[in-house]
Structures are given as structure tokens and as C-alpha cells.
Amino acid sequence: MNVTKIYDPDGANVLALDDCCMEIQAGEFCVMVGPSGCGKTTLLNAIAGFHDITSGEIHLDGELLCSGTRMADPGADRIVVFQQGALFPWYTVLENATYGPLVQGKMAKAEARKAAEELLGDMGLKGILHNYPSEISSGMRRRVEIARAMMNDPKVLLMDEPYRAMDALTKTVMHKHLLDVYDATHKTIFFITHDLEEAIFLGSRVYVMTTRPGRIKKVIDVDIPRPRDFRVLSSERYLSLKGEAIEAVHEEAKRAFEAGERELA
Amino acid sequence: MASNGPNILKGVNLTKLRKAVFGKTTYRGIIAIIVTLIFWEACARLKVPVIGMIPAPSSVARSLTGLLFEASYWESWVVSFKRVFLGFIVAQIIGIPLGLTMGMRRTFRDLSFPIIEILRPIPPLAWVPTAVIFWPTPEMSMIFVTFLGAFFTMVLNILGGVRNIDIRYIRAAESLGSSKKDIFWRIILPATLPSLFVGSTVGMGITWEVVVAAEMIASRSGLGFLTWKSYVAGNYPVIVVGMISIGIAGYLSSSLIRFLGSRLTPWLKII
Question: Do B148 and B242 belong together in one domain?
Fold first, then answer.
């Protein structure tokens, strides 16, 4: 993809993404990091079909998804896991998980139920099938959301800072869970985060974005072998990659901060 | 056992229900009512100015016991309930689709909202003379005025409910492959249910206020008329019986709505 996005609120053109080019391989765990407001979510929304782009093109499996003249339709081949979570509060865990296959008419009710029970069971969520999202912890909610996405066998999983509001301990458990899911399925994942440790620990490749307008500043190939566990966090390779990422991001964060100061002055 | 009870009670947590019925809150409520009654009786017997003019609970109780065996008293209940529920149901039938459409269709909202906002501040009772003129029967005019009491509250609550739906749910539903129909039935409607029940509970309260006042002005039946008739006849204890009956009727109606609401929105855990 190569994407430019200009927001035009009240006639003030804000260049959010400027010729942002990248190619994500099938089965890649791609992590985007960058300062706040650099256009990470804009890019994700364009892929998901929630926003249009000003110019450029995004392709998925060789097919044109969207361009400057055509907005992508949202679809079950690109499922989004949102920052604050978006399980439907009025459906139980099981009903949430079967939602996709049922509305798409891909499975009959009994079949979807069975598949969901199996998948949720594999993810250690067997005991909460009939609970409402408000009755379970935030960590469990996020796992259910990933299960709900997986039920649709998407081509790519779009994750917008899904673990942002979590405490460090829960986050560790969530990371392990996501890595297990990834190792088992090898789904393509497009993961946005601010957290560099998370980025290196999870990703196959980390894309550092520049401050607004967003461009790809640096690509870091994370060559730490999988399956990974918490021991990776103290390995030398991990620490040196993290150092590399910190350097790239720090420069951009400083620029973003200074730009913010100028805007406020 | 919950499973042996009527179907509508299925899933109601009996332990919680027992606690709610026999818990501290209930005892405190009963004590408060008894203390109020004693205070009221004392004021009446001691002829305390203003408050002592209200018939004492003992004479009210005597009147009530007599009325309980009179068919006309129960007819007043039935007539008022009928008016309230008919008006309320028509308000639901028109108000729910209207509120949903206003919430979902911008053009329709822009066209209809100003009209609603101009009509809304007119108190339903101000409609009584017009209603009596243009409806063929007095009964229909009563029901119409009752309808107005619930209608605007319903529409505005539902409109607010639809407009406050978090965009994430719509996007998640789109992302999961929902059609427009799915988004309406599976997302917008359940997401609006809590506001719908808030509107219904408030609306039900207003319909009772309206029906009683309307019965006093333009009817010869119902609990409002019973109260008014007793005032004209100087039968003061029955006025209080009428008032208490209206209070209980309103409470029963609101409880019914709250019960339905908690059954239909189990994810909110009201009970």
C-alpha cells in the first residue's frame, strides 16, 4: 500500500498520512509504532473500510481494496479489535462469538455454536460462555473479542492498541495468549501500539512511523525465533532491538512534542 | 425452585428476590410508613393547623374498607387503567418507530424535530378542550390526552438512545459482515432498549398524572373523577382514598414496566 490522507475539518487541511508505503506479507505479525496522532489509526480505519483515503492504493491479496476514488467496504476478511473493546453488551459471550458466521450465513446456528464452544474452550473461556461481557474481566473480554474475530477466519486481524488500558500483569498474560493464537493460526496481524516492548515481543516486523504527516521511518525485522515466551524479554537480541526502536521513536516523539508546543503557542 | 415457577420468572435469582422482599430495606420502609401514619393520626386528633384538616388515617381506613366491597370503586380502577394503558400503548406504537427513524435518518430528523419540539412544551391538559371537540367520543379524547403524556417522552428518549450508540458497535458489526437489516435488529434495537425502558417508566408516570387531571375536568368515571366527586360531595375521607388509590395504581404500572425492562435487558443487571 501507499497511502495519503488529508483531513479537511473547517477548511484547514491536515495531512495525516503522506505517501505512507508498506507491504505486509501474508502471515506476518506487523506492528506499527509511532507518536500519538501520527496516523496509525487512520491507516487501520482505511484498511477496515471505516474511512476513505485521499490518494494512493491499498491492496489485499493482490486485489484493490481502496484508492483515492474508492472506499473499502467493511468486511469479515478484515476484522478489527478495538482499543476500548467492542463486544456487544446485549449478547452473551457465546452469542458474540457466533455473531459473524450467523449474520454472514456461513454456518447454521447449531454449527456456529459448536464451533464457538470449541474455540472458546481452547482459549480457556469455557466457564463464561453464557455470561454477558459486563460480568467478565477486561482481559477475558479481549480474549473473547479475538475469538469472535477468529470465528470468521479473517485474512487479516486489525488490532488498534487492544491492550492499552491494561495493567502490566494482565498485559503479560494477554501477550502470551495472542502469541499462542498467532503461532497456532499464522494469521496476518496488523497491530497498533505505543508500547515498544510489546511491539518487539509480539511482532515479526515493527514499522516505526514519523510524526504527522505519518510516513514509515524505519522497519525493524524482529528475528527472535518463535514460539516466544517471557524469557525473550531478558535476551540480548530483544534488548538490542528494543534499543534500536527506542532511538527511532524517541526522535519522533520529541518532534511531535515540539510541534505540539508550537501549535499551542 | 425457579424452574418450577411461571415461565416469566425463569432465571430470577430467588435468593436475591428474597433478600429484596425481606431485607433491611423492606423493614425500614415499613417502619417509615407506620411512623408517618401515627404522626398523621396524632395531627388529625390534636387538630394541628393545616395538616390536622386532612382526614385521619383511621377514618380513611374505614372509608376504604367500605369502598372495597363496592363495585363502583373497582370500576373506577378499571376505567382509569384502561385509559392509561390504551394511551400508553398507542404512544409506544407510534413513538418507537418515530424515535428510531428520527435517530437513524438525518433528513427525517431535521424535518420532524422542530414540530415535536414546538408541540412538546404544551401541557397535555391544555389539549383537553381541543381533544373534546375533535374526537367523536369523550373516551377517545381522554385516551388521546393520556397518549400525549407518554408520547413525547418516548420519542425523545428513543431518539437520544439511538444517537448515543457507540460508533464502535456499528463498526464492529459492519466488520463482522452485518447487513443493514442485521445492524438494525441486532445492534440499534438492543442498544436502544435501555433508553426505551427509561422513556416508558417516565412516560407511564406522566400518563397517570394526566389521566387523573383529565378525569377531573372532562369525565364522569375513573379514579380522578372519584376523587373530584368526593370533594364536591364533601366526603373528605374518600378524597384521600382516591389519592392513595391513584398512588398505588401508578406504582403498580411503573413496577410492571420496570419488571419488563429488567427481563428484556438482562445485561444491565437492574435486579
Answer: yes
